[in-house]
Amino acid sequence: MTTPHAWPELRGIAYGGDYNPEQWSRETWREDVVLMREAGVNLVSVGIFSWALVEVAEGEFDFSWLDELLDLLHENGVHVDLGTPTASPPAWFFAKHPDAHVIDRDGRTMGFGSRGMASHSSAAYREAIVRYADALATRYAKHPAVVLWHVHNEYGVPVGEDYSPQSVNAFRGWLQEKYATLDGLNSAWGTAFWGQHYTAWEHIGAPAAAPSVVNPAQRLDFARFTDHQLRACYIAERDAIRVHADQPITTNFMANQSWTTDLWAWGREVDIVSDDHYLWAPDEDAHIGLSIAADLSRSVGGGKPWILMEHSTSAVNWQPRNIAKRPGEMARNSLTHFGRGADAILFFQWRAGRSGAEKFHSAMLPHAGTNSRVFREVAQLGGDLGRLEEVQGSTVEADVAILWDFESFWAQDLEWRPTDDISHQERIRAYYERLWRDGITVDFALPGQDLSQYKLVVAPAQYMLTAADAENLTRYVADGGTLLVSYFSAVVDENDAVHPGGFLAPLRDVLGVDVEEHLPLRAGATAGVALGGGELLGADHWQEALRLHGADVFGRYSQGPAAGEPAITRNTHGDGTAWYVSTRLDADSLKTLMNAVYADAGVSTEGLPEGLEVITRHGADASYRIAVNHNEQDAVLAADGHELLSDTEVQGSFTVPAGGVAVIRTTK
Description:
Blueprint: E1 14-19, H1 26-39, E2 43-46, H2 51-54, E3 55-57, E4 60-61, H3 64-75, E5 79-84, H4 91-96, H5 123-140, E6 146-151, H6 165-179, H7 182-189, H8 216-242, E7 249-250, E8 252-253, H9 263-267, E9 274-276, H10 286-300, E10 306-310, H11 329-339, E11 342-347, H12 373-386, E12 395-396, E13 400-403, H13 406-412, H14 424-437, E14 442-445, E15 456-459, H15 467-478, E16 482-486, H16 508-511, E17 513-520, E18 529-531, E19 536-537, E20 539-540, E21 542-548, E22 552-557, E23 566-573, E24 576-581, E25 584-585, H17 587-601, E26 612-618, E27 622-629, E28 635-638, E29 641-643, E30 648-650, E31 653-656, E32 661-667
Parallel strand pairs: 1-2, 1-11, 2-5, 5-6, 6-7, 8-9, 9-10, 10-11, 13-14, 13-15, 15-16, 16-24
Antiparallel strand pairs: 3-4, 12-26, 17-21, 18-19, 18-22, 20-25, 22-23, 23-24, 26-27, 27-32, 28-31, 29-30, 29-32
Helix pairs in contact: 5-8, 14-17
């Protein structure tokens, strides 16, 4: 096999998007490449949904139009991210292999005409995707336009779990490999409950819809199996390409917007992390959710530069209300991703499509044409990114980590939890937003990884925690770290079984506290927390009856079923400090709490103007402060150096215009 490059062979920041020329005439192709040059485009993703037009029948390939296209792009200085269109098998495939259709949890067979609709466990599908990837790489591995390979599209979206017969058979094989014996499986799944004990592997099915709640350990394992099967499909295609090609290979994640895949595991399989991100229109602070996605993409890639494979120039087409981006918002979004480590800024898509389900989705070249605000902003952004070439390859450093564990999320989201009001997404967003507003850059991390580089680790929603991971967190604190754990954490082990010793037991020593009982509140009820100095923090949804094992009480409940009892605790363990927060604090109360936690951790805040987001990228010879102003008023940033977008020297301070962005270089 060949050895992959670490990054596409591009000079400067990559800029462009999905290009679907099969929907257009040759005359339009020629117009497109001229406009791409005008807009500063240097990279396009091609072929992501072209299976039916390349493999016109099983084993019969017609590359003529793709040959012509790649030559045209190369002649015009546009590089290619060449895709395998395996998210959308052609009609002939399903006609020949009807058993490759996905079956959902309710037993319905998913039909043709959409995307992502093939069973990840179908032998015919596996054979077909490897055949296609091999043929594509054989033909284009040495084509000068191709600098990157793009496998599939958004694994797990829209279809993740598959309940077809071939998936059930594969699930049994996966379970046999994991547990080896039925005794091991029965023990892990707790099958003594409700008489579920298994005596033969062939009796085990997928956790399809049933009269009541299905075994949660079985459902958790099926989520793990689904992730494994999807990733196996990616690996099969990747390896088929790698036989012929040495360009990097990736697939586009959906960080913070899809929960089907464990991106930590996927990050180990791609040469470069790439991500698709779209603003969630109902969120008035959607730029904070964007920052979460960017930080997560960087984190699962080990801190290395990554690719923003898709985002939108304006509105999308698939939300209940598809809100258009206002002037300047596209550039702010793009440069926020850039600030948080992206060395490629790409969109879906280059030219807006006239037909199909995504015809109302915005594009770099909109239906309104070149005489439009969107295209003018696209060209402006292309020019700006050209001025930022020297930033390529620099990295982001963080003093704080937030724990993000997909398997814990899968377990927490199953049925019959103490209340429907608990959400791991909400708690992570709440703590992240507090750190964001305090100007603190964040990495995401797993509870079992080396955390020694961080001054502070926050666990907003670690419902599932293994004994080994609990030991790792305990060592982190003992060695001088500061840990904050939020409520409903360390409740169960890797099999969704309550820990021996009860809730929070694995962290009892480091936190100096455990939980006797969960006390969810009725709808609309509040749970204030009184601090020693008389200050009252606002809280709701949840309380816990705590038992102290050496921790000091930072705040007590002022009302509710636990009135007068400890609510927030602080414990010294070894050389570090561990905090436990047993209720849902509101945003203002989190600020009060986190100021005390920052003091323990030695984390300083810059005191930035509200709404001014600042991230620093570090290079070998210089650092770059990317300042994004989300306000409708100018914001003043204390700084010295050189502002790259305006080519201006900065002494003492720089005024970032309302809705604008600045990139200030400081030479080391």
